[in-house]
UniProtKB/TrEMBL annotation, chain B:
Record-given protein name: PspA-associated domain-containing protein
InterPro entries assigned to the protein according to its UniProt record, in alphabetical order: PspA-assoc_dom (IPR054437)
Organism for this UniProt entry: Streptomyces sp. SID14436
Pfam families referenced in this protein's UniProt entry, alphabetically: PspAA (PF22743)
All copies of domain PspA-associated, residue ranges: 1-92
Length: 293, 93
């Protein structure tokens, strides 16, 4: 880049006041160099214009554009954050579902299924932890950009007032010196905000790629679909196990009611169905045994 | 004297603190030149803490240019190197 020599020449004209007074060596630290680079940028832009008052209008347009951009940036980051929150909710509900499945499997005496459910849950928790970290990052970016937008708005308003005063009061020649300070102040802010937007965009883009991958996983059913339209193998097995058991339990309960029920009405129906009792009572034991094969 | 912390805003502090900040700033530059990542991070945090401690935030509508500019707290050594070596990285105005 052309930064080196140009910056050096420019920085000679815009050194720190303390450097000019001989109290500090020039270019001897990061903070100083950085300050000079920003000022050199502003000076370059200022030198380009024939009438410095035009620079004011041009810069003001740029400031308004940047304000729009930073507001869009805030909105983009917020969208990504909300998407992450949605995914986190989905992952968390899936995680507690797996925990329930584990418990149910254990209650049904299927430790193998319980183990499978819990190990899937552990993998999911890892994802949740990662997403939580990313969520915190995005939240931080959103806050920073929101504050940057506020600061920039305040400076743009102040700049507009100053610009109008300068244009109304001074000739082009007189304006030159008046413009310098306001202009480098705002252009420094613009450079800073511009970089902040770039950084936020980079971070958002990285996170969106990951969020896309998780969406795919959720959609493919690998992490299960919380809408319940796509049943995973674990749930299917458990449903089969517990579904059978539930029916059997219900049947037993009904038969018990019919056989020795407390109310007269139930006793009246008892006659015909009572005979099926011995056979169906075997089934609760049969069903799990069948499923294990 | 006015110091900008990138991504955070500006603070004003007395010129009498310059020597103190200079010492850390020179250390920071040396660490960057030597590629001393951990040292760089530690010194950057120390500089930021000093500036936070000694400085008074400027109002949002201030249009003052800064004398010194500090990288943001989470800036890496590579990012700062790029900022210093390549003025293309700072968006044009």
């Amino acid at each position: 880049m052309d930064a080196g020599p140009v910056l050096w020449v420019l920085s000679q004209t815009c050194e720190l006041e303390s450097v000019r007074r001989g109290r500090a060596k020039p270019m001897s630290g990061v903070m100083k160099r950085m300050g000079m680079i920003f000022r050199a940028k502003a000076n370059k832009a200022l030198d380009r214009a024939e009438d410095p008052r035009e620079t004011l209008d041009y810069s003001y347009q740029k400031q308004l554009e940047l304000l729009q951009k930073v507001r869009r940036g805030v909105a983009d980051v917020a969208t990504s954050r909300k998407r992450l929150e949605l995914q986190l909710n989905q992952l968390q509900s899936q995680s507690s579902k797996l925990e329930d499945q584990g418990r149910k499997a254990l209650a049904l005496g299927r430790e193998d299924l319980a183990r499978e459910a819990l190990s899937r849950r552990a993998a999911l928790q890892q994802q949740v932890t990662d997403l939580e970290t990313q969520h915190a990052t995005l939240q931080g970016e959103e806050e920073k950009l929101t504050l940057a937008a506020q600061r920039l708005q305040a400076k743009v308003d102040a700049f507009r007032t100053k610009k109008e005063t300068i244009k109304a009061t001074y000739t082009a020649a007189q304006a030159q010196t008046r413009i310098g300070e306001a202009f480098s102040g705002i252009s420094e802010e613009m450079g800073d905000v511009g970089l902040a937007i770039q950084r936020a965009e980079d971070k958002t883009a990285q996170l969106q790629a990951r969020a896309g991958a998780i969406d795919e996983l959720l959609a493919s059913g690998a992490l299960d679909d919380p809408s319940g339209t796509h049943k995973d193998d674990l749930q299917a097995e458990l449903d089969r196990l517990s579904g059978g058991t539930d029916v059997e339990l219900e049947l037993q309960r009904m038969k018990a009611e019919l056989a020795g029920g407390p109310s007269a009405g139930q006793q009246a129906i008892e006659g015909g169905t009572g005979q099926a009792d011995p056979r169906t009572q075997q089934q609760p034991q049969d069903t799990p045994r069948f499923d294990k094969q | 004297m006015i110091v900008r912390i990138m991504g955070e805003g500006q603070v004003a502090l007395a010129e009498s603190h310059l020597a103190e900040l200079n010492k850390l700033d020179e250390e920071l530059l040396a660490e960057m030149d030597n590629g001393d990542g951990p040292g760089f991070r530690a010194t950057l945090q120390a500089l930021l803490a000093k500036v936070h401690e000694l400085g008074e935030p400027l109002p949002d509508d201030s249009l003052e240019p800064s004398d010194l500019i500090l990288p943001s707290p989470d800036a890496t050594i590579d990012e700062v190197r790029e900022l210093l070596s390549d003025d293309g990285l700072i968006p044009g105005v």
